[in-house]
């Protein structure tokens, strides 16, 4: 178990620690760095990994379907349990957001690559894109709960460059189109920079985040995100027909802690961002306790 942790998860926390130190010591603002990664590096990564892997479209659909299904099931369970416990609406929303949105980008892609090799990068990238779609549709609907319509949530999708990169990759795969060599190499260079940059950003964004209650929603969201997700994802991955590295990667991605973007959404809609910050930070720190045994299981 310790060997699995040091080989696959420790490098992620070491690079994230560098990002944390950059903010703590050099006072670097993580916001423009994260925006650069969001607008430029992430779409290059999506396009390059999908077109280079030549993943069949049906396999893409299965991975996206699993990612969406796991998020919606966990959201439903979180909503049901929080309502049964009689929590006020904002705390219900916090629990749902924390359970629904996995850190499939800067944490999940890196862990998948270390654990299962280069073959895992494409399915991990697909899972990340599907999670991004969930974030900017269902995530916004949940956070706005009575403030925004489905049309408003869907209207935000065109603002996500990774979505356009996904469309471009689909068209390239369907038509056999290839970028001119200089552009292709430029895209490849930026795609190669994505994972290390994501990890630095993870550490940068966690700096200065404190821990606060109430602890009921925190425990529920972290429990569902780190444990419930695995229980749901493993049988579902078989139902979706995923096999081999694709199944291993999708299940590992499903078990990631809550995404930092959930804090941003909570702050935007004034839905207890401090509590959601606790879910993200504490879930990230606790995640090796669940992901290490999961890696052992998936590798057996």
What's a quick, concise take on this entry?
This protein has one domain: Na+/H+ antiporter like fold.
List the helices and strands and how they pair.
Elements: H1 2-26, H2 30-53, H3 57-84, H4 89-100, H5 108-116, H6 121-144, H7 150-155, H8 161-175, H9 181-192, H10 194-206, H11 215-239, H12 244-254, H13 261-268, H14 273-299
CATH architecture: Up-down Bundle
Q: What composes the largest sheet?
A: none
Compute the CA-based radius of gyration. Answer: 18 Å
Examine the coordinates and then state which fold CATH places here, giving the name of the CATH topology.
Na+/H+ antiporter like fold
Oligomer: single chain
Percentage of residues in helical conformation: over 70%
Shape: globular
Q: How many DSSP helices? A: 14
What distance separates the N and C termini? 12 Å
Estimate what percentage of residues fall within beta strands: under 5%
| E-strand count | 0
Based on secondary structure, the structural category is: mainly alpha
Pick out the low-confidence regions: none
- The SSE order reads HHHHHHHHHHHHHH
CATH classification class: Mainly Alpha
**Total domain modules:** 1
Average pLDDT across residues? 88
